[in-house]
Amino acid sequence: MGRGRVVVGLSGGVDSAVSAWLLKQQGFEVVGLFMKNWEDDDRPAGEGGAEDAGYCTSRQDFLDAASVADLIGIDLEHVNFAAEYRDRVFAEFLREYQAGRTPNPDVLCNAEIKFKAFLDHAMRLGAERIATGHYARVREVSSRFELLKGLDPAKDQSYFLHRLTQAQLSRTLFPVGELPKTRVREIAAEIGLPVAAKKDSTGICFIGERPFREFLNRYLAHTPGPIVDDRGRRIGEHVGLSFYTLGQRKGIGIGGVRERGAARGGSEHAPWFVARKDMASNTLRVVQGHDHPWLQSLQLAADQASWIAGHPPAPGPLAAKARYRQTDAPCMLVPPEGEGFALAFDAPQWAVTPGQSAVLYDGEVCLGGGVIATAG
Asked: Fewer CB within 10 Å, N- or C-terminus of the chain?
């Protein structure tokens, strides 16, 4: 007897492909689902489409997903969530950028599309569960569900999944969460998957690999203003505050002012970093040196809190990530108030950025998190 129907989100990548194969091996009735979340990728080559610049397009991803489904021997459905995406994810994404913050659209995409619209659709298809290629794990303890880090520390994606609820986790499988990425690629090669050597996507979930500033140019207003150093001296002009993020080093546009930095006592070769964005005066404030005090924060406040257990963890010592690519930082959770919480870190955290997610952990267990509002 089979183990029930699982709908797997097939993205065209190797992780979701191996996830589908593993589930079929485990005796599930597997159906593949390709989600199209964005409409602007489909202009043909030669008409200014994404293909002209070599970007990974949704059409190519769908063809890859179809070839995977064919080889594994499962049905594949194509579903268009572009309207939901624009309303639930992209509109919020633009609002955050226009307010001077730096949102994490992959967090919102998981909460609103992959584990909401997709889950609802899968249930209508008669599925009992859904599965994705995320590197994370689910553990049931006393009828409650915990989100755990993926076993491969270099690939763990629990950070992006911290808004998931008990209801969502109870119906979700992460087949590759128990495996190192190297083993996933080995499995793909062993069974002859056509995407075995396909490189991992590094683009934002809805625009693929295209240059980010070029994409934002189409949607955000350009209001140039001064670039000012930590002494209040004007050293350049920015193209619009929305196009910069705290901690940014490249693309600031002041590479030719090192001599001035040396002349006023700064290091001639110390790189510049974006440190503050003053929306009221439309001023971008930059500093020299990775360890400048303006780039260090011992505390943060977050709002829009979401807790996997359905309630906040007890105040006290925990660990947190204030950005995806960092190790867990020891901290104290201040008693949460309303929809927010505050963290006090044991050591200064670098470039804590409003709009990004602060995600809390107790060892390998992801507890949830919120959107960074302020840091100090």
From this structure: N
